[in-house]
Amino acid sequence: MPKLYNEENMRALFGGYRIGTVDDLNTEGYLRIVRTRRRQLGQMTMALDTETAKRRIPDSSYQISQKIDGEFSMLIFENGEVCTLNPGKTLRANAPFMKEAAELLTKAGVKKALIGGEFYVQRTEELRKMDGKATRVHDIVRIGRKPADQDELNQLAFACFNIYDLDGADLSMNYDETITKLDEIFGGGSRIHPVKTVIGENSTAVLKQYEEWVLGEGHEGVVARSHTAGVFKVKPRHSLDLAVLGFTESTDDRTGMLHDMLLAIVRQDGTYQIVSRVGGGFSDEQRITILKKLQPLVAESEFHEVNSSRVAYQMIEPGLVVEIECLDLVAMTSRGNPIDKMVLEWNAEDKRWEGLRRLPLCSVISPQFIRFRDDKTADKDDARLSQLTDIVDIPDFDRVAEEIILPDSKIIKRVVALKTLRGALMVRKIILWKTNKDEASKDFPAYVMQLTDFSPNRKKPLQYDMRVSSSKQQLLGYFAEWETKYFVGGWKVQE
Question: Angle 175-186/96-107 helices, nearest 10 degrees?
Fold first, then answer.
């Protein structure tokens, strides 16, 4: 009978504990299952802070569980062997909790199982007293990657919260049966165990458990599941001080009011990395006064970003800092990939922003504006990156944002046409170019075609249209269509 995983290809660490990738599994398809389950969990769970939870969680009977600050993983059990796999493709084997899991599952007569849970570190009392946290994702990042000794290896644990497969049965949507079965199998475990769960008869019970477990014991949050009301995650909000990079103005009947602001952290090398937009938390009066505050600070930028309405941000000179609150930070996609954000540099001599490159950072969930921090400056101390890394594990957060040296673009085809109307000269221009940058950076397409249309008689004299593609022939076809469409009716093509 083949083994569950290829141990020889995995990296051996202390005490026989091994780390590999999904490629070291001898059965295909598990990564797709892990990622699908992780995505489903995110889609069905509504994240709330305590104040919002008071209004949004309906009265119902709930299973209320402790939220463990760890790494979502799936425990895989086949014919007496155990390993864990996370959405980022990391495979782990031979940890002490896995031996315990194998013994308990075998004792229960189980042949095959897929158990969803949090891979975490059982913190010592000394660590808990230092920062008041019951669990901490940074512990699993360090110890999970390289335990220093047997004591640290023994601290690796797994808190089970769902059953995706138990000898062919999927119990994931039956919360009552899942908790009962997890307790039957793992209730006597120490390093592997069911997540602590109690029954609450109404929404007040959810908030009561939040006070006990989060405010009293330092857990990350609570998760409340109901067959009729849904799934809710209640967590504290985080406060962040971030640099203001730009803004957009509202349109139509809200012209003259701020729409949202573009915010960044400041890295150790003094560069600015975009982290979030914030458009909530402002009163109408604030939207008017803040817009007037920002408009005189507008600066040039070779980098352009648009908001959710596809309106380009007006960038401003660095210096302002705002405080926001958010519900959560997420550093990985549901597929386990890093979330890359653009890094910018302020050219003080030319007074303009310049784009450098994208580096891993995180997404900010439910940001809300609180206030301007007039007592702080947009530098690496007051708008520091560690505000994020203290909350979430960001891959390679200490990398230097050096500028990529990119090759020059090459113009493939260019046509300019002129027309005079009522004494005014109008200009239309189509340019197709090869960027020569697509292999060096994913921020660039292979080919770009742009139409520039200037007419001084219009309300907006200068207009643009653009196409991008990885195919030269495709854009040449569009080029011919644009020539036919735009260079007729008195337009004279220039030689």
Answer: 110
